[in-house]
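Pilot study result, target chain (405 residues):
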Amino acid sequence: MPKCRVCDSTLHEFLDFGRQPLSDAFVRPHETDDEFFFRLAVGVCGSCTMVQLVEEVPRDRMFHQDYPYHSSGSSVMRKHFQQTAQRFLETELTGPDPFVVEIGCNDGVMLRTVADAGVRHLGVEPSGGVAEVARGNGIRVRTDFFEESTARDIAGTDGPANVIYAANTICHIPYLDSIMRGVDALLAPGGVFVFEDPYFGDIVEKTSFDQIYDEHFYLFTARSVGAMAERFGFALVDVERLPVHGGEVRYTLARAGERTPNPAVAELVAEEVARDLASPATCARLAERITHIRDDLTALLERLRAEGKRVVAYGATAKSATVANFCGLGPDLVSHVCDTTPAKQGRLTPGTHIPVLPAEAFADPYPDYALLFAWNHAEEIMAKEQKFRQAGGKWILYVPEVHLV
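Predicted structure:
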């Protein structure tokens, strides 16, 4: 039986997505024979309730020089990170010579506001390409993976951090033991470790199964984060529901006894208990709904093909790899994917080999239907692409179920 990476208890597998590629490994047409695949299966710990992948993908295969995702690519996310930085500047970074460290700073979108305020900062980013973009924007970056040894080195050079922050990063890291020991080594007395990641409660509620892919090793809840924090001498002192990326929670950890927990923590934990959120029965029902979505989406696309309709996809997202490969969506059902990321254009989607074209191709000409892989940005995208609807086009969405807009 597989074991929980946090507490070493038995892990109960509840869904197997089968053979999956690296979600962000968009390949050139001549590279399709060299793709890396792994078994994407997800389980829940019977003790600490942590939901996690059964099989780990080596970190350097996912996060490297050519990692294509840029956090500042969405106007919604740019605003979100600016507001996050401003909140830190007004609350946690007000003392003499404050210092903030961001784990997985990507292109530096959050730290830019901090840097503009003249506050000491450091981004730790293993993906060289986006780290270079951050440096070009005036951000101080260390190109490295964050772990205990990294944290101790930073503490020895820069001193303790008042805030350690991460967005859509901690869920990527299987070795939480080293992360938490590193946070303990680097965090100043009274400081906070703040991270925000996809919330398993939203995944269950919305059946947003594409949040499960290689990079998302953990799917957090307040209960599981609280249990994890306690193992390392920390306490979960605040939680905040966030609307970004299809539903996230911002968790705030402090050393045990240093801060009084916000009542929001107990409220969210109680809600999770009432929902029976991470129980085997709830996870089994989620697996059934996911299977139904797969069957419904495949049937719809096969019917549209039979009717001679043209279908393209919108947004070459990392999470779309799970959808495309689990549902068997190739160029025969979806002619191409339109995306604004230059590094993905001219390449093929991982595993399914659907061509990725520039965003301008979406209107050249408009398709009959558009499969919205980037559904978490639906409002922003649909406002931008109003002419598609005016031309008679329809959006295909699969969260929380397959439907047309």
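One observation from the pilot: The mean pLDDT is 95. A full batch analysis is planned for the follow-on phase.
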